[in-house]
Design a protein that fits this description.
The chain is of the alpha/beta class. It is elongated, with a radius of gyration of 18 Å. A hairpin with a 4-residue loop joins β7 and β8. It contains 8 helices and 11 strands. A 5-stranded parallel sheet has the order 2-1-3-4-5, with helices on both faces. A 4-stranded antiparallel sheet has the order 6-7-8-9, with no helix packed on it. α1 crosses α5, α2 runs parallel beside α3 and α6 packs across α8. It comes from Paenibacillus spongiae.
Length: 240
């Protein structure tokens, strides 16, 4: 029996939700729709989907608040859809942990393509673990521990609760500790397709990661900035 991908669409505009639903069901997705945050959380808690498509402009509870509640329960990927197109709005979306960001009006076909791409990337990190990569790897004399199979990063024994995208970016750095990654390389690594826009959007992800892994995010020791180049890991891999 083939597994059916599931998606939760959260949008208070029924017309938009139904159009997205129709396209995704035709593509084989199992679709749930919620028109407000309370219904969305109830449906999400009952059956955690593989993907969430979330309108940032909801009613009483904003999409931003809802995304934070979702992130408190799971690190599944989600796509934000919004009428806000300013760069700072996109940056804010990525800081909230969004894996992709689509501006209204949009093509349902493009949204479907992006949904499939985000889903494939999430599967890649679950199913395509390097068989030679140990399950648990430590860095900095045990200060940092990564479970590559469960996709969990620990600092001093505490789960950092990285989102799906944050984990992908951070794990890229840990797999090549001496390499300096450009912003474009990290975006390509996370997005899986050529990103059209400002590569500095990666800075929003880095800021979010540092809030979770660094003792002092303003003076990072783990995720370092290489001025004029990009980012690198500040710890060496321990000999296991």
């Amino acid at each position: 029996m083939n597994y059916c991908r599931s998606v939760l669409i959260v949008d208070d505009e029924p017309t938009i939700s139904e159009v997205i639903k129709a396209y995704m069901e035709k593509d084989g997705w199992n679709v749930e729709v919620a028109y407000d945050a309370d219904i969305a959380i109830a449906k999400f808690t009952k059956n955690i989907p593989d993907l969430v498509i979330l309108d940032i402009m909801l009613g009483a509870t904003s999409g931003e608040e809802l995304s934070q509640k979702i992130r408190a329960r799971s690190n599944i990927p989600f796509i934000m859809i919004t009428s806000k197109s300013r760069e700072e709005d996109r940056l804010n979306g990525f800081e909230l942990g969004a894996d992709d960001y689509v501006v209204k009006p949009f093509s349902p076909k493009e949204l479907l393509a992006r949904a499939n791409a985000v889903y494939r990337r999430s599967l890649m990190y679950i199913t395509k673990i390097d068989e030679k990569q140990p399950k648990l790897v430590t860095y900095g004399s045990g200060h940092l521990l990564i479970d590559y199979q469960k996709m969990i990063v620990y600092v001093n024994g505490q789960d950092t609760n990285l989102t799906n995208t944050e984990y992908k970016l951070f794990s890229a750095l840990t797999r090549a500790p001496e390499k300096v990654f450009t912003r474009a390389e990290l975006l390509y690594y996370a997005q899986g397709y050529r990103f059209v826009g400002d590569p500095r959007i990666i800075d929003a992800h880095v800021k979010n990661i540092r809030q979770k892994v660094e003792q002092d995010p303003k003076s990072p020791k783990i995720l370092l900035t290489v001025v004029g180049a990009g980012y690198k890991l500040g710890l060496m891999r321990d000999e296991n």
